[in-house]
Amino acid sequence: MAVKSFASDLLCLLYVQWKIGDSRGGRMLEGMYRRVAYGLLVVLMLTFGGTSTARAQLSADGTGQSAFSIPQSQLIQTDILDSMLQKQPKARPVIFQVGSHLMYSQAHIPGSIYAGPGSQASGLTLLASKVKTLQKSQLIILYCGCCPWSHCPNIGPAFKRLHDLGFTNVKALYLANNFGDDWVGKGYRVEQGN
Amino acid sequence: MVLLLICGLFVLPLQSQTALLHRLAPGFVRSDLNGQRVDLRALRGKVVLLNFWASWCGPCQVELPAFQSWQTKYGSSGLQVITVAMDDDTQPVTAVVKKLQLRFPVVMGDDELGKKYGGILGLPITFLIARNGIIVERVNGAADLSQLEMKVHSLLSDR
Known about the structure:
The complex is a heterodimer.
Chain A: H1 2-19, H2 23-58, E1 75-76, H3 78-87, E2 94-97, H4 101-106, E3 113-114, H5 121-130, E4 140-143, H6 155-164, E5 170-173, H7 179-184
Parallel strand pairs in A: 1-5, 2-3, 2-4, 4-5
Chain B: H1 2-7, E1 29-31, E2 37-39, E3 47-53, H2 58-74, E4 79-85, H3 91-100, E5 106-108, H4 111-116, E6 125-129, E7 135-140, H5 145-157
Parallel strand pairs in B: 3-4, 4-5
Antiparallel strand pairs in B: 1-2, 3-6, 6-7
Helix pairs in contact in B: 2-5
């Protein structure tokens, strides 16, 4: 409706500009162009932005889920996990790395298990198979650290998958920059190999 | 213990990420996606921009087209861009190379190469290597492209 109104106003002003050719008409026309451009921009953002967001949220397998979809209350900080690993060796959480295998084999949290990239359907299937025998109340910690938290494509879908499978005690390790900076660079222990 | 060592499952600190700075870049020889031999040592005399990326890394996809344009712009002045894809599979890498029309050598990464460069445990990571083979810059994460281009430009003028 708004677009239709812009279009009819614009046609009127074009007519005024062509017929009269005065500077007032020109200024009005300039303002009109700007309004039309803003209007079109809003329409485009609502159409495409809204669609892609919905697509990300609605993807059936959870891929495309942002790391920001994980509630703050379900995040665990590096120092807490490190002290947990050192102080409670018998009550260890089950830790899964849900990023690339190449990164896992270079360095990973001691005792953690490679579970495949959460951004890919194959990774989510592998994760599901790894948790098959676990109690739903088991404390599970997921981490990736492939890229900055805001860009991580793996942690959000992996978290969602475990949530969908009924696991009630899942935490995600918050790595602001990446595993190298936020875990290895801070001197926490790592293992290497497969 | 022996078993653990054989399996490679031992706890040890990786070398510091700054340890490579101002040192000779670790050499490597690999085949790129087109089957062409890439030998870093053979590029002595050129300024090398060595970038580690992956197909699933968002910030990497922003940098790669810029690196391609620099290769075109500065190639004749002695710049050589080489990128290492840290994907587990080649297929998605090939797709990105095609989509972004990358024409510089792209090689697949591995454990050995990652460890040689201090551990590639987050992406993207970019190294600038001077004409004498010394690493003069390591950029962790998305680079400030205008600053990086200025550094490339400055290195190219050092003859």
